[in-house]
């Protein structure tokens, strides 16, 4: 009971500091799991040695990702600061940042084929919404019916990563599909809701993508996030300015967006030697 109250206090204080809904959820989930597995109540400060052993255990036994390790450490540091009012010098346990890998993308033909094999209108609408605006998984799941602005032809993305709202384009094809979907499913609050109401689950979206890839005979190691990468790459290939793509994706730094220049055909297949222009 006490631990639950402490975690609720943690979530309230994160919200007051303007952390995004997704980040608060990630930190809270990582904190609860860490306290449970370390058999700690969360009432007292945790010894660094115990946290270090726990991280090594999670790496060796569960092969946790770099991002999940960062979430655990960030959650514990923030919890000590905001709830226990203690300093936890655990920054040295953050994983070494990986070098930016060139993202995997699907060609436009592969995306077209992927959508063509999906017969469930709700499943198709979810994946097309992600690709149409370059949305993150959390962003599409947090969309509400009122976020679709058909007059201005935009989708409003609220409290996305970095707690900064933004607007992305609403494709004509997507609007038509969403109208069919809304007529059939009649969502009440969230645009995509589960069978019992509330937000649709990320696991379900991953399964939709996995089945569609298999059905379309696509053997690439693609995920739901690949649709976001593909959106950015296809915009760049069509000649869209990198700054606009940065805004659509919600990147704070243009350097993050520049990774797409390494996978696009623009500047490679369309490049000519300056000698030919003499």
Description:
- The chain has 278 residues and is mainly alpha-helical.
- The protein has two domains: 2-93, DNA polymerase, domain 1, CATH 1.10.150; 108-262, hpI Integrase, Chain A.
- The chain is built from twelve helices and three strands.
- It has helices spanning 2-16, 21-37, 48-62, 66-84, 108-116, 121-133, 137-142, 172-185, 202-215, 224-237, 242-249, 254-257, and strands at 148-149, 154-157, 166-169.
- A three-stranded antiparallel beta sheet has the order 1-2-3.
- α1 (2-16) crosses α4 (66-84), α2 packs across α4 and α6 (121-133) packs across α10 (224-237).
- The protein is globular, with a radius of gyration of 22 Å.
- The N and C termini lie far apart (78 Å).
Class of the largest domain in CATH? Answer: Mainly Alpha
* CATH homologous superfamily classification of the largest domain: Intergrase catalytic core
For the termini, the CA-CA separation is 78 Å
Tally of separate helices: 12
What is the percentage of strand-forming residues? under 5%
Tell me the series of helices and strands, N- to C-terminal.
HHHHHHHEEEHHHHH
Q: Could you say how many structural domains there are in total?
A: 2
Helix content: 40-55%
Kindly state the mean pLDDT as a whole number? 88
How many beta strands in the DSSP annotation? 3
Rg for CA atoms: 22 Å
Largest sheet, in brief, is: 3 strands, antiparallel
Side-by-side strand order of the widest sheet:
1-2-3
CATH architecture of the largest domain: Orthogonal Bundle
Shape estimate: globular
Task: Please sum up the structure shown.
By secondary structure, the protein is mainly alpha-helical. 53% of the residues lie in helices and 4% in strands. Helix 2 crosses helix 4 (66-84).
